[in-house]
Design goal:
The complex is a heterodimer.
Chain A (H helix, E strand, L loop, with lengths): L1 H19 L12 E8 L2 H17 L3 E8 L4 H10 L6 E4 L1 H7 L23 H5 L2 E2 L2 E2 L1 E3 L2 E9 H6 L8 H11 L11 H16 L14 H16 L12 H4 L5 E5 L3 H10 L4 E4 L14 E4 L2 E4 L6 H13 L1 H7 L9 H9 L6 H11 L4 E2 L7 H15 L5 H13 L2
Parallel strand pairs in A: 1-2, 1-3, 10-12
Antiparallel strand pairs in A: 3-11, 4-5, 6-11, 7-8, 7-9, 7-10
Helix pairs in contact in A: 2-13, 8-9, 9-16, 9-17, 12-13, 16-17
Chain B lengths: L6 H72 L4 H5 L9 H18 L5 E8 L4 E4 L2 H7 L3 H6 L9 E7 L2 E12 L2 E8 L3 H4 L10 E5 L5 E4 L11 H7 L4 E5 L3 E7 L5 E7 H53 L9 H13 L7 E9 L1 H8 L1 H18 L5 E4 L4 E6 L9 H19 L10 E9 L6 H17 L5 E3 H7 L4
Parallel strand pairs in B: 14-15
Antiparallel strand pairs in B: 1-2, 1-5, 3-4, 4-5, 6-7, 6-10, 8-9, 9-10, 11-13, 11-14, 12-13
Classes of the chains: A alpha/beta, B alpha+beta.
Chain lengths: 416, 500
């Protein structure tokens, strides 16, 4: 009986203590590892990447991914600021050229082989991984290959009884019949036109623009050839001035063709194709007698890298592996960045019957061409292109002769 | 005879049980009442607290949004720090094309540097001829087409600052635009992806059930923490609660909704189904009722234990008094008053077909004991007689001392073996005489004491106590006259005509 009484008293005291306890209320919140992901691109890339990140976060609720993204314009400068101020994202979509710029000795990005137990690198050939190595250190993994490609609006060309152009003169001939209607045979954004004119100059001179060490191989005369070619293209109305380039002119038929990256094919031509217009991938333009692809460059489209300063290499590697190899991300991404280099991703797309369309055709054209050169990343240097554009403007607006402008450009490049 | 079953004690026990039941009921009702009041008060406090917290959350969200939008506006204003931005007019036909290109490059570089760390989709200048300088995305160009300047200009809604915010242009809710007039022919355009607002409306984990939405003035959803709602109209359920209200919190049976207006007549609306709040309230209610039930049971048990502890000595005292009032202290059997009372009650309740017997016995030679051995010995004899009577008769029979050495027995017990009742009574009388013989042999200093016995039988000799008593007394008298130490049954006297 005493035991029962004691138990009853204890129960009451416990209850009172529990109910009236003045102990502090402690609420545990879910702890998450926060990592960041940055990329550039268009609306569709943003949408599918955000969807992919959401899928990743569902798979790994203990990881939160903060996204930073925008269109390409200005992104390169922003990336530079982040890289030099150590504020870059944990996982980054990077440009091939940035490897040389920020990681010449291989220390600018995280060594991905340190997390090879997390990232499945077996889907990539050694040759492909070599694109991401600097000084023997694996800094980045390429997503797909890319090259400037010539796309032709066959519907417009047929209207003028013109065949798909193969040589530079074909464009000049086309301009002669199209200009009366205000139609340009081809057009391109600043960097595309820059590489377009380099292709011409390399074919004409038989020299590569850069030496193997990345220094300028062109002479003043070679640069003059580029500038004269550019002025002629503008004067002959072959392509519009870079500052006037607008993608809407592809849709309204002002541009009968475009030089653009493989990875831009869908963005450029999706709408116009939906209108029933036929877009063809033209052979890489050459001077007559040369093989298509000579003077043209291929490079990894975009790459994924991990910040050398990341505090969460494992989680960053998990995200990277998801972006590269997971079937969820592969299906979301499709061929938007080109045909994936990952064999796993390529098999998934093949299974899903997604290896088709203008972007796939452009990729095949690039893959099957044996003449394409491997791009030296310095050729994409933003400052270099800006200097070239300034020189072009001097020539186009008759503020300087091609010879004077070439000399100034040469001095500017060498002085860098 | 069960002396414990006394009427007073029975009544007292009944009263005690009733009191305990009443106490338990009062405790239960009191606890229930307090619990219900506590639950109601808790509900009110909880609802008010949740309502207040939600209001605070909503206000915080609105402040976050205003801060975010204000920061965008400030970055937009910074464009005016570059003089060329507001002095250059791309629509001027007198512009030198080369100089214009150089100027636009300078403006573009300046604008890029200003927005370099922002996730802007657009940050540039659009001129009346739709010429663009700076960061104007292909998406925006595609979206606005030839009506770019015209439609962007229509987004300016604030005359004081010549600017305005807009979303949902051409049903595209993926981008939010800020437009500010630079001069008559130029507009500064900033845009960002709606998804950027996720950081503005980031909801703490603990409030994960809360839906947070940003709507325009027509309640079209510009941002939602719920998936796939972008661009859709706000549900009628919510609109009906917040329509035409700029700052209010509504809590009813279905929803807790709070709204605050923000820049440009946009609304930040937080909502949560009331049942989700009630889910927590029900847990609290259950807890309170459980505590109340345990408290009621404990109070009843403790009260009962204390009551028993308090009343037990009183009960014992009362029982003792009751015993003293009914029992002859010397012999331990009923006193005269109690014997008569019990016997009368029993007779009153008896049917004529029943059989009872009233036996009176008077001790023979008792005076001699007192005279020769003293009163103490006499008292001892009387005490022994009580023992003899208890040993001879059953506990169902009434035993009483009705005078100094005069005793009475009322037989309740009946023979259960078919024996004639009179024979049964005779056997009892003989057993009684024999018991005296056995106890008082007269040898070895033992005084010889016997008893003269008179018996009357119910209903033959009478049906009430007085009649039976007088009959038995007459029979006793006959036994005394017959030489004592014998018994006489009044019925036999009647048969022989000796009753007088």
């Amino acid at each position: 009986m005493k035991a029962v009484k004691m138990m009853a008293v204890s129960a009451v005291l416990s209850l009172i203590c529990t109910s009236c306890s003045s102990a502090p209320v402690i609420t545990e919140q879910q702890q998450q590892v926060e990592i960041s992901l940055s990329w550039w691109g268009n609306d569709s890339r943003h949408e599918y990447t955000l969807a992919g990140v959401e899928a990743f976060e569902k798979l790994h609720p203990d990881i939160r991914v903060n996204c930073s993204y925008s269109e390409w314009s200005g992104y390169e400068s922003r990336s530079r600021v982040q890289m030099v101020s150590d504020t870059e994202a944990d996982v980054m979509q990077i440009n091939f050229g940035w490897l040389s710029e920020y990681s010449a000795d291989g220390s600018g990005y995280y060594d991905l082989e340190k997390v090879s137990d997390v990232i499945d690198l077996s889907s990539y050939s050694d040759e492909m991984l070599e694109y991401g190595r600097k000084n023997g250190i694996l800094n980045a993994v390429p997503i797909a290959m890319n090259a400037e490609t010539v796309y032709i609006n066959s519907s417009i060309y047929q209207k003028y009884n013109l065949a798909v152009p193969k040589h530079w003169d074909d464009f000049i001939d086309a301009a002669r019949v199209m200009r009366k209607d205000g139609v340009y045979p081809i057009a391109g954004a600043e960097k595309s036109i820059w590489l377009f004119t380099i292709s011409y100059a390399e074919q004409k001179t038989g020299k590569s623009f850069l030496k193997d060490d990345g220094s300028l191989n062109f002479s003043v005369n070679d640069l003059q050839i580029m500038l004269e070619f550019h002025k002629r293209m503008i004067d002959e109305k072959v392509y519009p001035q870079v500052k006037d380039f607008s993608r809407t002119c592809i849709e309204n038929g002002t541009y009968a063709g475009a030089v653009a990256w493989v990875s831009d094919a869908v963005n450029y031509f999706k709408d116009v194709q939906q209108q029933g217009t036929v877009i063809e991938v033209a052979p890489y333009t050459t001077v007559e007698g040369m093989e298509p692809g000579e003077g043209w460059y291929a490079k990894p489209a975009t790459m994924y890298a991990i910040s050398r300063n990341t505090e969460h290499p494992k989680e960053s590697a998990m995200l990277l592996d998801f972006l590269l190899n997971s079937s969820e991300m592969t299906v979301l991404q499709g061929v938007e960045k080109g045909i994936p280099l990952s064999t796993t991703a390529r098999e998934t797309l093949d299974r899903e019957n997604m290896l088709q369309g203008i972007q796939y055709n452009a990729s095949l054209c690039m893959e099957q061409n044996t003449e394409l050169n491997q791009m030296n990343s310095f050729i994409e240097n933003d400052s270099l292109i800006k200097k070239y554009t300034e020189a072009c403007n001097l020539v186009v607006f008759d503020k300087a002769t091609p010879e004077q402008a070439a000399a100034k450009l040469y001095a500017d490049i060498k002085g860098k | 005879m069960a002396f414990e079953e006394k009427t007073n004690l029975k009544n007292m026990k009944k009263l005690k049980t009733l009191m305990m039941l009443c106490y338990a009921v009062i405790v239960a009702v009191a606890v229930l009442t307090v619990s219900v009041l506590a639950v109601r008060k808790t509900d009110q406090v909880l609802e008010k607290k949740v309502s207040t917290l939600t209001t605070a959350l909503n206000v915080q969200m609105e402040l976050n949004l205003n801060n975010y939008l204000h920061r965008m506006e400030t970055i937009g204003t910074l464009a005016f720090a570059e003089e060329q931005t507001y002095t250059y007019d791309a629509t001027d036909p007198d512009n030198d094309e080369y100089e214009a290109t150089i100027t636009e490059t300078a403006i573009r570089d300046k604008l890029y540097s200003l927005c370099i760390m922002e996730n802007f989709v657009d940050y540039g200048v659009v001129y009346r001829n739709n010429h663009r300088v700076g960061k104007i995305s292909n998406g925006t160009v595609d979206l606005f087409g030839e009506r770019m300047f015209q439609d962007l200009e229509a987004m300016i809604t604030r005359p004081r600052t010549n600017d305005g915010w807009a979303a949902g242009y051409q049903d595209n809710f993926n981008r939010i635009y800020y437009v500010k007039r630079i001069h008559e022919n130029a507009l500064l355009v900033i845009s960002f992806y709606t998804a950027e607002l996720k950081s503005v409306f980031d909801n703490p984990e603990i409030m994960k059930d809360m839906s947070i939405r940003l709507t325009d003035g027509n309640y079209n959803i510009l941002y939602s923490s719920e998936a796939d709602e972008l661009g859709l109209p706000l549900s009628e359920d919510l609109v009906s609660r917040v329509a035409d209200r700029n700052s209010v919190t509504v809590l009813d049976k279905e929803y807790l909704v709070t709204v605050n207006s923000s820049n440009d007549n946009w609304f930040v609306i937080c909502s949560v189904p009331t049942k989700i709040i009630l889910k927590e309230k029900n847990v609290i209610q259950l807890f309170i009722y459980m505590i109340a039930a345990v408290a009621a049971i404990l109070a009843a048990v403790i009260g009962a234990v204390l009551y028993v502890k308090l009343t037990k000595p009183i009960e014992q005292f009362v029982a003792k008094l009751d015993t003293k009032a009914h029992i002859d202290q010397l012999t331990g059997i009923l006193n005269k008053r109690s014997f008569e009372e019990y016997t009368e009650n029993r007779l009153n309740a008896s049917l004529p077909i029943e059989h009872h017997a009233l036996i009176i016995l008077d001790l023979d030679n008792f005076k001699g004991v007192n005279d020769t051995l003293g009163h103490a010995a006499g008292d001892q004899v009387l005490a022994n007689v009580g023992g003899i009577l208890r040993a001879t008769f059953s506990t169902e029979d009434y035993l009483g001392r009705i005078g100094g050495d005069e005793f009475c027995v009322f037989l309740n017990l009946h023979p259960d073996d078919g024996t004639d009742y009179k024979d049964f009574v005779i056997s009892k009388c003989e057993a009684l005489c024999q018991a005296f013989h056995n106890n008082y042999t007269g040898e070895d200093h033992n005084f010889k004491i016997s008893a003269s016995i008179g018996v009357s039988i119910f209903p033959e000799c009478g049906e009430d106590f007085n009649t039976l008593y007088h009959s038995a007394d007459k029979a006793l008298y006959k036994s005394k006259k017959s030489g004592k130490d014998t018994y006489t049954i009044f019925a036999d006297m009647t048969e022989k005509g000796e009753e007088n």
